[in-house]
Amino acid sequence: VDGARLKDVGAGLWAEDASGLLIWLGRFVRSRHAVPLEADEGADGLVQHDKVVAYRHREAARRAGERNLLPPHLLAQIDAWLPPLGELIADSPDAVLVHADLTPSNIIGEAAASGFSPIRVIDFNQSVVAHALYELGPVWWTILEGDPQRTQRFLSEAQLPGMPDPIAPRHALAWALLNPAWRPQPFAWLDSVGSLDDLAARAFGDGG
């Protein structure tokens, strides 16, 4: 692969001023989700995808534990906390083409002393017709690192459902749990978060 993967570039090259990367990535998502689908392709795709989402909703706590996403006290809250599946699907009812694995391993760019300039996204083998908010999890757990300012910048550019008004924080966190990255670096501050509602408000609320 020509170019540098974001995962191989020191965070110091882009983390302090991540706005350029987040704008580029959000616009990639918006253009990806705008790819026209045949009516049958979208409807049939959602029928199959909803089966996957239903399974992940049932198994969310187990899968989050396998991926080391949350400390034990937050893992224990998932089953009782998750919004009903129908509510989540209602956030994002339309079928779109999602990449579904937007992580630093799949962002290619040019690295220089002045920073990281993204060029393209790779690895489309998990791309699927799905609900748009299924896109949120991998990027939130890795590139956004749960940071509320980065998250709102990305969401505003990606124009995921609910924007320009922010999606309900609880629902946003739920979608991030349904399609998480595989074993991301745990957020050091999670141990100090008392509940999943607190986490949702901190990560996706207006005030961060």
Throw out a few tags for this protein.
208 residues, mainly alpha, 3-stranded antiparallel β-sheet, two-stranded antiparallel ribbon, 5 strands
Describe the structure.
The chain is mainly alpha-helical. The protein is 45% helix and 11% strand. It has ten helices and five strands. It has helices at 19-33, 39-58, 60-66, 72-75, 78-81, 85-91, 136-141, 148-158, 169-178, 196-204; strands at residues 4-5, 95-98, 107-112, 115-121, 128-131. Strands 1-3-4 form a three-stranded antiparallel β-sheet. Strands 2-5 form a two-stranded antiparallel sheet. A hairpin with a 2-residue loop joins strand 3 (107-112) and strand 4 (115-121). The longest helix has 20 residues, at 39-58. The radius of gyration is 16 Å and the shape is globular. The N and C termini lie far apart (37 Å).
The radius of gyration computed from the alpha-carbon positions, rounded to a whole number of angstroms, is 16 Å
Major sheet size, sense and barrel closure:
3 strands, antiparallel
* Beta-strand share of residues: 5-15%
Number of strands: 5
- The global form is globular
Helix content: 40-55%
* Cα-to-Cα separation, first versus last residue: 37 Å
Mean residue pLDDT = 90
Strand order of the largest sheet: 1-3-4
Residue ranges: pLDDT <50 for 5 or more in a row? Answer: none
Helices, by number, come to 10
The string of secondary-structure elements, in order, is: EHHHHHHEEEEHHHH
Oligomer: single chain
Structural class: mainly alpha
